Amino acid sequence: MIENGSNVRLMDLGISRMNGGNKFSSYGFIGTPQYSAPEQIKREEGNTANPINATTDIYELGITFYELLAGENPMDSDSEAETLARQISEALPSNPAIPKKLMNVIWKATEKEQSKRYQTALEFKNAINNALLPDPPLTERVSKWIQNHIVMVISIIVAIAFILFLIILILI
Fold first, then answer.
1. Fewer C-beta neighbours within 10 Å, C or N terminus of the chain?
2. What angle do CA 3, 19, 86 make, to 5 degrees?
């Protein structure tokens, strides 16, 4: 919610508004389907293999971050059942309003498998900060690529030198 046009307040009133204050949705689910992590939904189905933990909050924060940047909830649907199904099985759609580097961060935060998500809020925060940094200059990127692929670079140089040597031998 935005207060006085500038103060942003993060709130979740989903539980209090559903079914006249009943904490359960029409599908027996506790929470707000548009923000719920798959393990919350599956838990209500009796599957307790994936515990509710910090990665659950990171998933929900990833959905919220997407919504703040895009202006729409990526999992919202006309029916609660469809929203819950999307949360379990569909990746967030790409959105042109979200820069690619930030979209990659959001996709990792909202992985369906908990072990693939950021494991702490600090990891998530650092990834966002890194995504907001400008790309390094081309010379720096090329230099780093060469350092990371030095064996291949040397092999290519040796191959080119050998081919030039053969061409010179043929021409003489």
1. C
2. 80
4-41 burial, b for 16+ CB within 10 Å, e for fewer? eeeeeeeeeebeeebeeeeeebeeebebbbbbbbbbbb
* Nearest CA among 36, 37, 29, 32 for reference residue 17: 32
Tens digits of per-residue pLDDT, 23-71? 455 556 667 889 999 998 887 566 667 788 999 999 999 999 999 999 9
Average pLDDT over the chain, rounded to whole?
86
Q: Which helix (H) or strand (E) holds 151?
A: helix 150-171
Is the overall model pTM greater than 0.85, yes or no? no
Distance between CA atoms of 54 and 119, rounded to whole angstroms?
Answer: 7
pLDDT reading at 11 higher than 80: no
What are phi and psi for residue 71, nearest 5 degrees?
85, 10
- What is the spatial distance between Cα 119 and Cα 63, in angstroms, rounded to a whole number? 16
Rounded Cα gap, residues 134 and 141, in angstroms: 12
Q: Whose structure tokens read 């790409």?
A: 94
